């Protein structure tokens, strides 16, 4: 099964030198070696946003080209909005990107690799599988 790797996991692995031996970084490395990582455009954008150095941004962008983006369709955005509304009605708040991740994971039978605790709350109301 392929896995959507959330921005926080990529960030842990790519931007923080002190965490190269972190268990989540090691798990990401395994997923990459097994060709199980599924990239989506919004996560790619989040990863590249805020990098001050043009050189670093270009290098990271080139490295990330190894991961093809999953196509996002109108239905995916509609389902993301439904998920947003469902969770909000239960008192659970989240970002538009988080609910798009949930939508894509559901639509394409993907699990979500994250350390963002908000996804635990989403999983109470949405049919998502956390990695």
Number of strands: 4
Q: Helix share of residues?
A: 55-70%
Report how far the terminal alpha carbons are from each other: 10 Å
Radius of gyration: 15 Å
As a percent range, the share of strand residues is: 5-15%
The helix-strand sequence is EHHEHHHHEHE
Which ranges are low-confidence, i.e. pLDDT below 50, for 5 or more consecutive residues?
A: none
Main sheet properties: 4 strands, parallel
Which structural class should the secondary elements be placed in?
alpha/beta
Characterization of this structure:
This protein is α/β, with parallel strands linked by helices and 131 residues long. The protein has two domains: 3-64, no CATH class; 74-130, no CATH class. It has helices at residues 7-15, 23-33, 41-48, 54-64, 74-89, 96-107, 118-123; strands spanning 3-5, 37-38, 111-113, 129-130. The chain has a four-stranded parallel β-sheet. Helix 5 packs across helix 6 (96-107). The protein is globular and about 45 Å long.
Structure characteristics:
globular; 4-stranded parallel beta sheet; 56% helix; 7 helices; 131 residues
Give a quick precis of the structure.
This protein is an alpha/beta fold.
Give the topology:
Blueprint: E1 3-5, H1 7-15, H2 23-33, E2 37-38, H3 41-48, H4 54-64, H5 74-89, H6 96-107, E3 111-113, H7 118-123, E4 129-130
Parallel strand pairs: 1-2, 1-3, 3-4
